[in-house]
């Protein structure tokens, strides 16, 4: 018995050591960028892994002012928020319909939508560009928003379908017997029960659209329309030798993602585990 407890304790210790090593490996680039944003260029080259001599926010402030990051930040906020609204308004009813309703072609239509998850954006980026150009939406935030939301929908519908499948169908049947319409049942009964999945959907969509680089790179030309990822790329080209300012801009681009994930990480993990089970 004692030997069994020792083996179990040893295995748990090895697991914790492995997890801590992985955590350090994953977070070390983020920590390095944050520390470098407080340093001067000289400090970055002479002592890259040490703590900064002073903890001022000059690099972040200068990057915000000199790099036009206010405009980039607002552009990304517009694309991300509108994209999230579109995705939620489409994916939640669609997921509910595929999970709870019985209609002809349900499974066929669902699997056709899932094909979008297997199609890489690199394979369709050129047709997307020409289609948006014919619609007059190239070099516009609206075009980037529509494409970003459309590309996010296959996984979003898959996630919400699995989330609504975990909700007992008896609740919908009881609501129907009580005289509630389908929309009333969806909004008042089913959607509140799917809250963890909706939160996971919002966080996933936020991370995906906020950090996207390829679509803005291909679809946007004017600097006043750049999103923050594309703005950071252009800023690096302008400040190729001023690494302190580059790291300051990098921290600005990371802050929203870090804040959102830290606040909603529990709901995100819960929703993803529920929505990806089936």
Brief rundown of the structure:
The chain is mostly helical.
What does this protein look like?
With 278 residues, the chain is mostly helical. The chain has one domain (58-275): Orthogonal Bundle (MetI-like fold), CATH 1.10.3720. The protein is built from 13 helices and no strands. The longest helix has 35 residues, at 2-36. The protein is globular.
How do the strands and helices of this protein lay out in sequence?
Elements: H1 2-36, H2 41-46, H3 58-66, H4 69-100, H5 106-118, H6 121-134, H7 141-165, H8 169-177, H9 182-193, H10 195-210, H11 214-219, H12 228-238, H13 243-275
Task: Record keyword descriptors for this entry.
MetI-like fold, mainly alpha, single chain, 278 residues
Mean pLDDT: 85
Strand proportion: under 5%
Instruction: Give the count of helical stretches.
Output: 13
Helix content: over 70%
Query: What's the order of the H and E elements?
Result: HHHHHHHHHHHHH
CA-based shape:
globular
CATH domain fold name = MetI-like fold
User: How many structural domains can be distinguished in the coordinates?
Assistant: 1
Poorly predicted residue ranges: none
What is the name of the CATH class? Mainly Alpha
Radius of gyration: 23 Å
CATH superfamily: MetI-like
User: Using DSSP, what is the number of strands?
Assistant: 0
Distance between the termini: 39 Å
CATH architectural label: Orthogonal Bundle
Q: What structural class is derived from the secondary structure elements?
A: mainly alpha
Largest sheet, described in full? none
